Amino acid sequence: MTMDHLRRNFLQKLVASAVVVPMLSPYRALAGADPAGTGSNRGAALRVALMGLGSYAARVAEAMRSCKRARVAGLISGTPSKLQAWGTKFGVPEKSRYNYENFDRIKDDPDIDAVYIITPNALHRDQAIRVARAGKHVICEKPMALNAKEGQDMVDACADAGVKLLVGYRMHFEPNTLEVIRMREAGDFGKILFFQGLCGFRIGDPGQWRLDKALAGGGALMDIGIYAVNGARYMVGEEPTWVTAQQTRTDPVKFKEGVDETIQFQLGFPSGAVASCLSTYQMNHLDRFFMTGEQGFAELQPATGYGPIRGRTHKGELARPHTTHQTVQMDEMAGILLDGKTPVVPVDGEEGLKDLKIIDAIYAACDTGGRQDLRLG
Ligand code: NDP
Fold first, then answer.
1. Predicted TM-score of the model (pTM)
2. How far does the centroid of ligand 1 lie from the alpha carbon of residue 145, in Å?
3. Which candidate, 347, 342, 372, places its Cα nearest to that of 360?
4. Average pLDDT over residues 124-130
């Protein structure tokens, strides 16, 4: 989607965006998904199978209890005891519980519309392709895949299967974030000049998959720095055309080759706006977006945590009420998958792919020390 398209449709879409959810009885009509997005399922609940029952899936499952348009309808896990416990807890019948060997059978499960992949990053590509081939919509956690090549494979597989691919970009539905985007579109900041994104935390247990290159595909950039990559795009409202980056490593024991500890990167946009970002696994208290334009500024801090997201602009405090991100995200994704609704900020596979192309270029820039040109369309 071009920025012109975004701009044209912005106000219209915002009215029906993340914060406005139809007040329907939760599961009154359990119609199937609508791959063509014809809108024929308006009002139905999206029946979601969660894949990978770890810590984030637990947060999503709890949040989905409050959804008006989505519910947990299936489970996919490598741990039989979790299938049993989560099945009981979330009312998922045994017939809709699967493991990683047999989940292709969801093809014949008429009670599942979509699979939400919440496993370690390196598993996303192959799992998404299998889900697509089973004829179910794919919702995949960030980062969508390990690199742009893998991401493209996922986009292609979903297109071939006639299913949709969405990425778990919960901030795209967050009310204060959307308010900043609305203000930018309304011209409140004037011409955008600069964005700063600071994203990081001090990572603990050295044995976890996030510090294993094979499962994580990298380090902080794949996990937390991606919020600055993605945020730079939706805050500035343009696609970057170049990137430069520098990597520093203070703990080579914890952060092995290929697992980035701290990266600073800079992005350039067609309008002349620039961004300066920090991604790290070695510092706490870093969750801040700042943007300035010729006529004003916006600041979000925290900017991407689970909330409440707080912030202010040159016009005062941002005061949109907090909503549980994952509840809104899943209700909105039901609208996208079942009704063909278009979100204010895209959450589709192409959106995930753009971030992966930038991440590939950031790693290349770290390796070469030179500027990388980007062609994101
Ligand atoms: P966890 O380690 O807590 O859970 C991952 C789960 O994946 C495991 O519990 C396990 O579930 C399953 N799994 C399958 N194979 C493996 C393997 N080889 N090693 C480890 N786990 C495996 O991770 P998170 O839940 O924190 O993260 C999962 C994904 O969600 C990541 O892509 C991450 O980036 C993303 N995420 C997104 C967030 C957001 O705000 N959008 C926040 C946190 C994470 P089982 O036993 O059921 O098979």
1. 0.91
2. 13
3. 372
4. 99
